[in-house]
Design goal:
238 residues; alpha/beta; 28% strand
């Protein structure tokens, strides 16, 4: 789908290239659906000349964004672009002028580390990150590295407990409460039947006192890859 930006009281849809998460999943219609959705929403469309997925970024509304090296610097996306090139294009196409680079995303994430499973801005300059739960949390090192990088970048941090180790047929799943979807009046948090579900929803609810917050089972969505934020497209208010 398109990424929608706002400025001067107007919305603009940016259509980026898409190659099935680095050539993994290619489907007919992938190259046209972004323009079709934008036209259905009566948005003007501008095409960008590089590959980018919405879940690879999260922003705080001030020009500050967070992403992962594993995804945006992956040679299966834009092998001809350097980190500096990508930062320049984020500024040019989306108005993102300050980028916090985290390292890897979650284990076994088929998107190559989309940041919306790891770190989300919840207010200007305020970043939420998971906290490992249990000695067997498969992403403990990922969370620790993300925290160290964010601290060095000097953003304000908030902790959300992770679901811990979630498996399907012996395979560790990239389950995360961070893949919540923010709507106008509601925040919807994925849950996984983990003993930490209630704590995860409560921690995110505390970050959004102006909205109701609910947890909904996301096992089926996770089995297909992703979460509620992955399955949504936001439009900023103007």
């Amino acid at each position: 789908g398109p990424l929608v930006v706002a400025g001067d009281g107007k919305r603009l849809a940016r259509r980026f290239g898409f190659n099935g998460w680095g050539g993994k999943y290619l489907m007919h219609g992938d190259q046209t659906i972004g323009t079709e959705l934008a036209h259905d929403a009566a948005l003007h469309v501008a095409k960008a000349d590089w590959i980018l997925e919405g879940g690879a970024l999260d922003g705080d509304g001030t020009g500050l964004a967070v992403t992962t090296e594993q995804c945006l610097l992956n040679p299966n996306r834009n092998p001809e672009l350097s980190q500096a090139d990508i930062e320049a294009r984020l500024a040019r196409d989306l108005g993102l002028t300050n980028v916090l680079w985290l390292g890897d995303g979650l284990l076994h994430d088929h998107t190559d580390g989309h940041v919306d499973n790891l770190a989300r801005f919840v207010a200007p300059g305020v970043l939420a990150l998971p906290r490992a739960t249990g000695k067997d949390d498969p992403n403990a090192e990922v969370y620790a590295d993300a925290r160290a990088r964010a601290q060095n970048f000097r953003v304000e941090l908030r902790e959300v407990p992770s679901p811990g180790r979630i498996e399907t047929d012996g395979q560790v799943e990239p389950a995360s409460y961070m893949n919540f979807a923010i709507t106008t009046k509601l925040v919807v948090v994925p849950t996984f039947g983990s003993p930490h579900d209630a704590d995860g929803v409560a921690a995110i609810a505390a970050l959004f006192p102006d909205r109701d917050c609910i947890g909904l089972p996301a096992d089926a969505v996770l089995a297909g890859g992703g979460g509620f934020h992955c399955a949504s497209q936001q439009m900023p208010s103007v």
